[in-house]
Amino acid sequence: MVTKAEGILLKRNNFRETSLLVSFFTKEFGKINGLIKGVRKDPKKIASNLSICSLNDIHFYRSRNSEIDLISQCDLKKDYSFIAKDIRKLALASYVLEFTDTVMQLHDKNIKIFELLVNCLNSIETDDPEKILYLFQIKTLTLSGFKPHLETCISCGKELKQEANFSIYLGGLVCQDCKTKDRNSASVLKGTINSIIFLESSPWKKALNLNLSKPIRQELRGILYNFLNFHLEKNLKSYRFLFQPI
Ligand SMILES: [Zn+2]
Prior knowledge:
The protein is an alpha+beta fold.
């Protein structure tokens, strides 16, 4: 029986002489892997150009014995291939797609992650790629249950005044008395903490309106990168392209 889904293409690889192996993150089934037979010999076989950043309507047959489904039809719903013209935007999109592909298990349905991906791709054309990156990372941490504890000291529960340290190991802020519990904890600006809280709790569009100063961006970059690496234990290839000078 044919199954329909709406999916963002995460990756594509040539398979044998004429076919393609693809991964989509779908709204209905989470991540799926699929085979499109013969499409390299006959590209008109499917209506989508399968550009690396694209939203597609797909028809496929669920496989009972394999993790690879057979895709019979693929119609382009939205093409984001303009992203490839700007190296910063392409680096961001590559990171977001690789991140999703690496972290999400097969067939683990998650509509919020799907919406997050669509929001990212929709915003890349007009908004600041660096801000989209931080917003994506913060929202992903929250959705994965690794939201950093920022409201009070994570160790003693005391209310925090101006000075606080961020502990990746403990998973949040520590007060001046508790900072010795993690020797690697580092002091963090109040503005950075407030920015994370605002980005985490605001809807996508509203969050994108927040102005981030250079010192706050620098802190966000370090904290989010280290925090994600610590919890997800994944080093992504595409991350190193994100901040390369053009
Ligand atoms: Zn404390």
